[in-house]
Amino acid sequence: MHARIRTAVTSALLLAFAAALPAQRDKFENLAEGYRVFVHKSIKAVPTEPNEQQAIAKWSGSLEFKDKLYRGNADCTALLVRIKKQKGPTTGKGPAEGDDAEKGSVRDDAITARNAGTSVEEFLKLRGLPSDMSSTGDEKALKSKDGVAYVQSQAMGQIFDDRKREMNAVPVVRSYMLEDDQELFGIVAIGPWLDPWKDLVEDMAKSLQRTQLGAEEAESSASKFGNQEFRDAVRKKLVKGWRAFDTEHFIFVTNSKDSALIQQILVDLELMRLNYIERFPPVAGVNLDEVISAVRFCSTYDDYEAYGGPAGTGGYWNFVDEELVLVDMQTLDPRAYKKNPSLKDIQVLDILYHEAMHQYFFYANGNLAPASWFNEGYGEVFAGAVPDRRKNEIRKIDKNKFRLAVIKQAQKSGNWPDLQRLLRMTQQEFYGQGVLLNYAFGWAFCFFLDEQKKDPKGNKQWAAIPDLYLENLRKVTQQKKEQLKVDDKDKKWLLPLQDQLQKEAYEATFKSMDLAALQKAWIDEMKSWKR
């Protein structure tokens, strides 16, 4: 009796959800891509990554499932895709053909590799998604709004039912493709293929309609700013709820409604850029005035993770997409804090000052990152910047409170680092075991060196280490470039040599240095710091 009642109630709820679908949908239309589709409001439009060309629109959200195979919440994503049946990117300009095809940037390679698929299976595989697709069998084919039947396929996966403590096999990818001689066009749905996700996606597929191609109206950037082509390309990827702002050297995109914080960030981006240039001028031959940097600011942690932000972080510099991504740490959902308690100690402007330095060095240092002790250490030094926006200057560089707390905890346990080991760490080693301590000691060492530079009585040899290291890194890089006869158009040659060049720069900088004396003075200084 009770089972029948539960079944009847569940069925009634699902019917009610299905009936409510039309009333709870948003219309999305794109003339340039030639489509119109209605999407349920339980999933939000999410920007696609800068290098994404085959997924032309994206929606994502967390849904609650009450199915016999799975009860709980799961993140679900719907992609509207256009896959050409010949090799190469779907839209836009790929790397040049001919002799220069192998000399493009890392970003050129990423665009080509990511968008090279010519089938749904390849599309999924290139994005690290389940790709063992098979037909949905005798299931009745859905039709688009235009009355064209979809080619339907799915990939199976395992999902853990926390209530029953068991794994169940369910479809985790479902595709609805309209196919012709030239392309595949349709929806790829990622998530447990159960209600309510199933109903939501089927309704979306039924509403999908091709429209006549036309010119998409897009907000233009102010003509007084340079590199209009890049700025306009960023604007073309804006989705509902997102806006773009221009400064002289940045384009800033956000879905935040916090106008005061947005204005602070816009001012600080330019202010910090000047500070980076003053402290570490660019390598010879680099014209930074020609560089326009992209910055994305997500208003919620769900938006941040849906876009690709690593869990437990507050921002990151993506050198492949050449985009700095941040999230508003002051408006985080309590669930994000529960999963990552350390997020409570992070401020968005601190993250901005750190990650924007990585972005600066990518361009100013000829695409070669310094060793992690320097790169992350100075990122954390700049995170302590105290701006005076009325005077348009950095008033001071304060101690990094978050990293200082880790230093003081290490002092209690006597867990001091071996300086030589820290300075020789590769990026992989730095980000490995003990990464929290590595960040803290990287910051402490760089802060200590800068304090030596500021102090008239400071050790001049130690004060010169940062600039000497950067000079040596650039010198060995130029020597290697000349030795290998690298073409100036080749932006990829550095990647496999990064660890080697950083090692050579370390040896050139510290070969005559008394590291034991330096380590002792540094640790003594850390012991004297007050929280």
Structural features, described:
It is a single chain. This protein has 531 residues and is of the alpha+beta class. The chain has three domains: 2-94 and 103-210, Protein Transport Mog1p, Chain A; 243-366, Collagenase ColT, N-terminal domain (Glutaredoxin), CATH 3.40.30; 368-531. The protein contains 18 helices and 17 strands. It has helices spanning 2-20, 106-114, 120-125, 197-207, 228-236, 259-279, 301-307, 334-339, 348-364, 372-382, 401-413, 419-424, 427-430, 435-454, 460-463, 465-484, 498-510, 515-528; strands at residues 25-30, 35-40, 44-45, 55-66, 71-84, 134-135, 151-161, 166-179, 183-190, 209-210, 243-246, 250-254, 293-298, 315-318, 323-327, 385-388, 393-397. The strands form four sheets. A seven-stranded antiparallel beta sheet has the order 3-4-5-9-8-7-6, with helices on one face. It has a five-stranded mixed beta sheet with strand order 11-12-13-15-14, with helices on both faces. A three-stranded antiparallel beta sheet has the order 1-2-10. A hairpin with a 4-residue loop joins strand 7 (151-161) and strand 8 (166-179). The chain is globular. The model is unreliable at 1-18 and 88-102 (pLDDT under 50).
